[in-house]
Amino acid sequence: MSTSPDLLPVTDRLARPVEDLRVSVTDRCNLRCRYCMPRELFGPDHAFLERDELLTFEELERVVAAFVDLGVSKLRITGGEPLLRKDLPVLLHKLSSLEGVDDVALTTNGVLLPRLADDLAAAGVDRVSVSLDALDDATFREMADTPLSVAAVLAGIDAAQSAGLTPVKVNTVVQRGVNDDQIEQLAGWARDAGVIIRFIEFMDVGTTNGWLRDRVVPADEVVARIAAQWPVDPVDGDVAHDAGGGGFGPESLDGDGRRVQVAERYRYRDGAGEVGVIASVTRPFCRTCVRARLSSIGELYTCLFASEGHDLRSLVRGGSSRAELSSVIADVWRGRSDRASELRAEGGLTGPRVEMSYIGG
Ligand code: SAM
Ligand code: SF4
Ligand code: SF4
Q: What is the pLDDT of residues 304-318, one digit of tens each?
């Protein structure tokens, strides 16, 4: 079934369509990054979701199809660590086969990629983003609270490249005083390895990661440091592949006339590819945010900083049709006015919010 004309266009209160869906398939993880799942809070006593609470693959397919009917064409599978979900390639094959889905990506810590990369590619995954915060083992182990070494993640990146899940993107969350000394080293490695690295500003997602504004390294500082070593030019007027933009008018330009997008891209003048920054804190891009999020138990979140989601699981388990699901999602989306990162910039972001490991970044 293709998009239902009677449901379109579905735009929210700020005229933003829904084009991009992040699907969390588990709240569990094989790492314990201190900024995401600190072990003191996500230890043996933590109540992770039970298996029967998670949407089954069939349920996920129905819910995702309902989003596709509203205009979603890009999916990103995440978690927790999505590769921990049993038989994940089976789900990915179902989702990538849906008519109207034209891009399926996955965000992972990379550790299980050597085992799964070929199966992911065969299931129709287009690209993977691998999270890697340091090349130095001691820093990596400290940040991810793991005995594993960086080599485990690098092996995952290699496996993804060999499987054709390219270009592999690497995401690095930068925290001042924790891993900001790694910026040049990581950028240099990425240039040689043929991966696109994006440096992400540390965000105050959830309430457990001990966020401090002083820990945020502004994206402009990251770019200046990299450019001092390898000169870069901004990729002007281009919309980052995962920006989820499109269809926007001049209102999607910021005060300097620059396109507001998720990843700001820079091309190395010497031809060694590109590097990106995601300035969620210092340059919020809420005005062009066309992303919905689905938790692993089927709650729709309209913002990464939302305190609660809208239950879709009871509908799908209660026998709602695809059209009925679409209609409920459309109603939620039409009521959406989220712009949390802009509010933070204006000094007004308070209150409870969902954890990153639950909703998947
Ligand atoms: N486990 C997978 C991984 O690490 O790629 C997928 C889920 S993880 C929650 C998704 C992304 O969110 C990772 O790139 C991670 O670094 C990022 N992330 C987690 N907490 C963050 C925070 N407080 N600020 C910025 N990014 C964060
Ligand atoms: Fe796990 Fe990813 Fe969170 Fe790290 S960032 S704890 S790998 S979910
Ligand atoms: Fe979108 Fe919310 Fe992030 Fe703004 S803060 S870009 S509305 S997810």
A: 988 899 999 999 999
C-alpha dihedral, 228 to 229 to 230 to 234, nearest 10°: -30
Query: Dihedral angle at the C-alpha atoms of 87, 93, 94, 98, nearest 10 degrees?
Result: 160
> Directed axis angle between helix 113-122 and helix 88-96, to 10°?
30
Radius of gyration of the chain (CA): 19
Q: Which residues pair with 131 in a beta bridge?
A: 171
Number of H helices, E strands in the chain: 11, 12
Per-residue pLDDT reduced to its tens digit, 69-99: 999 999 999 999 999 999 999 999 999 999 9
Ligand 3 first shell, C-beta below 6 A: 284-286, 289, 291, 303-305, 338-341
Instruction: Kindly report the backbone phi and psi dihedral angles of residue 86, in degrees, each rounded to the nearest multiple of 5, phi listed first.
Output: -60, 135
| Main-chain dihedrals φ then ψ at residue 83, nearest 5 degrees | -70, -5
Any ligand 2 atom below 6 A from CB of 79? yes
At residue 213, φ and ψ (nearest 5 deg) are: -55, -35
Q: Please indicate whether residue 33, judged by its CB atom, sits closer than 6 Å to ligand 2.
A: yes
Return the ∠ at Cα 216 (arms to 105 and 358), rounded to 5°. Answer: 40
Domains of the chain, each with CATH number or no CATH:
20-359 (3.20.20.70)
pTM given for the model: 0.91
Atom of ligand 1 nearest to the CA of 203: 24
Taking the chain, what is the end-to-end CA distance rounded to the nearest angstrom?
29
Task: Give residue 52's identity as a one-letter amino acid code.
Answer: D
DSSP H helical ranges for the chain: 57-68, 88-96, 113-122, 137-144, 150-162, 183-193, 219-229, 313-317, 322-334, 340-345, 356-359
